[in-house]
């Protein structure tokens, strides 16, 4: 895998959040991943014909590696966008 990580864009479930915001755990491909650390967090605001769509982007570290998760606030959905394995 390169410096940009493996691109995925696959849905995940986030059953637990820290302080109601940061992902504490997520379920991807049927396996639960507990977040050991949130390494980065950004909010993206984009304008479109319907108004503003916001997304949170998190880079998290788990036992399996580093993942980039996104939360689409308008749709209330989560995705794993990239993965850097061990």
In short:
The chain has 86 residues and is mainly β.
Helix-strand sequence? EEEEEEE
Give the uncertain stretches in residue-range form: none
User: Helix count, per DSSP?
Assistant: 0
The largest sheet has its strands arranged as 3-2-1-7-6-5-4
Q: Tally the structural domains.
A: 1
The mean pLDDT is 89
Spatial shape = globular
Question: Biggest sheet, in brief?
Answer: 7 strands, antiparallel
* Structural class based on helices, strands and sheet pairing: mainly beta
Distance between the termini: 10 Å
> What percent strand?
over 45%
Total number of β-strand segments? Answer: 7
Q: What percent of residues adopt helix (DSSP H or I)? A: under 10%
Radius of gyration: 13 Å
Protein model, in words:
With 86 residues, the protein is mostly beta strands. The protein has one domain (6-85). It is built from no helices and 7 strands. The protein is globular. The N and C termini lie close together (10 Å).
Secondary structure topology:
Blueprint: E1 6-18, E2 22-28, E3 31-34, E4 37-48, E5 51-62, E6 65-72, E7 77-85
Antiparallel strand pairs: 1-2, 1-7, 2-3, 4-5, 5-6, 6-7
What key attributes describe this structure?
mainly beta, 7 strands, 0% helix, 76% strand, globular
